[in-house]
Sequence to fold (538 residues):
Amino acid sequence: MRKYIINILFLTVLCMSSCMDGFLDRNPYGSIDENTFFTEPEHANLAAIACYSNLQKLNSHWGDAQLELGMTGDFSPTGFKDASTFYLGTFNPNEANVVLGIWQKAYKGIAVCNKNIEGVKSMGDLLDADTRDKYLAEMYFIRAFWYFRLIQFYGDVPMRSASVQDPTNESEVQLAATSKETIVRDFIIPDLQFASQKLPESWDEVYMHRVTKGTAWAYLCEVYLYVKDYENAIEAGKMVESYDYALEEDPGCILRIDKEDSKEIIFSIGIANGITTYREFYFGTIEDLGVDGRIMRGDSYSNDYFYPSDDFVNCFQAIDGTDYVSSVYYVENKSEQYKNRDPRFDATFFTPMDEVTTTKNVTLNWKQEWLVNKQTGFDIQKRGVYYGEDTWNMRVDMHMMRLPRIYLHMAEAYAMKSTPDFGKCSEYVEKVRSRARNFALMHKDKYVPSGLEDNQVLPPFKINSVETAMKAIDYESRVEFFTEDCIRYYDLKRWGTLKDVWPKKVGGVWSDKLFDLPYPSSELSANHKLTQHNGWGN
Fold:
């Protein structure tokens, strides 16, 4: 189904490029010929769809931002060599592609939204109010998405609420940074509130990746949590629950191509053949099995792969909910450590319990002899490229928001509000944890050792304080969302615990400047009203 929205995107960009001056490749100000566009009712739809195109690559570089940053402790400093400076915290802000890439993609996306918002607003009687507002709501949502992404990486950033009319006018082009608090209050929340009211509850099936009311409420929940407005975060989360979302039964199937229409997915960026052949995810195991075909790619030309850290591997609990390293189920031999664990361990890494189907339609169990990651002992299964045919271009969509994220946000809000409700916190943590437990109980032969009673399988967390609540939320979020965008990075920053992970991972000394990325040096050269922040200029 995803191919339809992707094909529409291609047609849209093709059509719009005929009347736009470098629509997606110019500097981040935007340019459009209003004499040939915004003159027909269908142009509003095309303008809204065009705002999705910059989401195809969130970072203008070879990898997803969290992988390049490697600041969360979940990835090993061994593995993909191009990412080592981010794993180790030694990147040069004047040369770092990730620093410039996140910035450029966000402001290009914002520019397209601003220009198209203005264009649709100018269409007057060509559109009825409801139709106009529906498409405006999409563009407001995407603009809010980009700004929220910017402030989560950089902190205070320039806020551009309208397109640049004269790129040669420095007073119009150059902007000082606006505080992130102001951007959230005056820009992100109003845009998302408008979207939550004006977006449809659903689209036709061919538009499966377009945002809906539920998507807007989900991001309002996250933004309210970010600014510690816990009551509104809870109310926004309840709105998400009122729509037709539901958890999948199997925690290991969500990031597969055959589940990209899952009711668990709230916001997803579609990736399909033809978008780009430059793959972004260096996960996987040995891929070429000879006559049996291929199973799942890692890296095809440099023999580099992303490796999980020992700390992340060890964080997965034993099946009885105890710390694995100190549990009765712990084994020294890494090739056996997949046994008697939280089933999300098996969902995250390749293990001999996994059945894989090759490009030659041969089904077999993954074998330990295929292990690529000899250094840290496990090959990452999540978020890689699953082959449905003998091609290099079949890639998993980027899931930006799933239902478990909202449940854990609500749990956090209940725990942190002025009068904590640890009962409700527990309830929402359990919505996530019980899925893993139930799956283990349905597959006892794989996950549950003989003699372990059902009520001893991943028992509920005992939550009776902020500390116990956050420990439970941290665990569930960490094992649920590994490899999904920058979720753990965002969590650690929101909780103020990034500094606790950093020295533990790299053996270095925390510097407060590491909390936010530096501004790109090229932007500082072009924008004289912007000055480097957080000690990066020293």
Summary: The first helix runs from residue 2 to 17. Residues 318 and 421 are 28 Å apart (CA to CA). The chain has 19 helices and eight strands.
